[in-house]
Design goal:
Layout (H helix, E strand, L loop, with lengths): L18 H7 L13 H13 L6 H12 L5 H13 L4 H12 L6 H13 L6 H6 L1
Helix pairs in contact: 2-3, 2-4, 3-5, 4-6
Main location: membrane
GO molecular function: ADP binding; ATP binding
Protein name: Putative ovule protein
């Protein structure tokens, strides 16, 4: 039994993109498989993360939607890219710069997802980079 003492009500949630890992650690139930986000769901998440309740300016909607599509349905990628966009000026030029940078990368496999983390790291302020590397 995975959790022999359930009286303490503790739980561990393991997330992985590797099915072999999920199968190896499963206990009494099968792994729960999550689907990728649709383009509209990615766009909704990106807007919520960047604008935090405010609406996206009309001039940024098209480029913003394309940026969210480049994350290929991966919520972590959307959130990381949103973190970069929050630091940028809310101008068409700065968002197009992000879009062009992302369009040169394919996101999907584990190796490709690492590139989005690298992109996020490169866009961190210098004083935060050591914090990121600490983990």
């Amino acid at each position: 039994m995975c959790f022999s003492d359930v009286s303490k009500r503790s739980r561990i949630i393991l997330t992985t993109r590797l099915n072999d890992v999920a199968e190896y650690v499963k206990c009494e139930s099968d792994p729960h498989h999550l689907r990728l986000f649709r383009d509209d769901e990615s766009w909704t998440l990106l807007q919520r993360e960047v604008f935090q309740g405010e609406s996206c300016p009309p001039k940024l909607k098209d480029v913003g939607f394309e940026i969210s599509k480049s994350c290929r349905g991966l919520p972590l990628s959307v959130v990381l890219v949103a973190g970069v966009l929050k630091q940028k000026k809310k101008t068409l030029d700065s968002w197009k710069e992000v879009e062009q940078s992302l369009s040169s990368q394919r996101i999907g496999s584990l190796e490709e997802s690492i590139s989005i983390i690298g992109f996020s790291y490169k866009n961190l302020p210098h004083y935060l980079k050591p914090c990121f590397l600490y983990f």
